[in-house]
Amino acid sequence: MFNLDGKIALVTGAGQNVGAGIARCLARQGATVAVNDYHADRARQVAEEITAAGGSALAVPFDVTDLNAVTAAFAEVAERTGPVDILVNNAGTGGPDRTMEMYQFREMPVDYWRQIIDVNLYGVLNCTKAALDPMVAKGWGRIITISSGAGTVGLDIGVSTYAAAKAGAIGFMRHIAKENARHGITANTVALGLVLRNVKDPELVRKLADPIPVGRLGTPEDAGHLVAYLASEEASWMTGQTIGLNGGTTTS
Ligand SMILES: NC(=O)c1ccc[n+]([C@@H]2O[C@H](COP(=O)([O-])OP(=O)(O)OC[C@H]3O[C@@H](n4cnc5c(N)ncnc54)[C@H](O)[C@@H]3O)[C@@H](O)[C@H]2O)c1
């Protein structure tokens, strides 16, 4: 699809679902992929799958909320494969323990929303900070952040602080795009719609897909294909954008 031969990509939260789909897709285009996840076993498994399929990957487990760990991991990747050319900020959480338990804001415990902001917003800041200097030195870079439709529209499903973090990431990417455009670096955001892999009940899947104009939920591969484009040489004039990837759902 796009030629990413010789590029080093780092995908955060790539141990499952959307991030794993993105990592596999970038590897198929020829990139060497640093597969990050907070869960080391997940990162290793995805990296092994990519390698077994003929791609090039390494596992780099770290917590995106820990700036020291992020900085050390980017240095490790640079030493093992070369500096990161393509950063995909995908790691995200719907709440502590990844329960996706949802609260109206009035009832939301402060610790709950601190973690949401920490992973979904500070995680993006930390990884972007670690990625930028080597990209500027090289005069080339791609930063792609996976946000959510929740960051662009109001919803009544108890995701207010998740939306705040995701909207924050959108604003951050727009500014990073402007600050770094002259260094050959692009920064874009994907406002993703529903991609649910664990719903086994066909009736529930149908109900969730019903309001989506295309008539189906998204897949990790849908995200991977868009990210592969945004990561490519061909996307050099595409920067500072927020792209809705959602089967046609209205997001503004
Ligand atoms: N799935 C959807 O419907 C959907 C919709 C809109 C946006 N998104 C966004 O897409 C991204 C991926 O979503 P998903 O459904 O694949 O999520 P997921 O929960 O299935 O996977 C996220 C991965 O990130 C990892 N992770 C969490 N916190 C981390 C941290 N601090 N450091 C490193 N890794 C960490 C988890 O271990 C997990 O493997 C997220 O940013 C999410 O907010 C998802």
TrEMBL record:
Keyword Membrane: no
Keywords, comma-separated and alphabetical: Oxidoreductase
SUPFAM superfamilies: NAD(P)-binding Rossmann-fold domains (SSF51735)
Pfam families registered for this protein in UniProt: adh_short_C2 (PF13561)
Entries under InterPro entries matching the protein: NAD(P)-bd_dom_sf, SDR, SDR_fam
Transmembrane segments: none
GO molecular function term, any single one: oxidoreductase activity
Family classification: Belongs to the short-chain dehydrogenases/reductases (SDR) family.
Name recorded for this polypeptide: 3-oxoacyl-[acyl-carrier protein] reductase
Organism: Thermomonospora echinospora
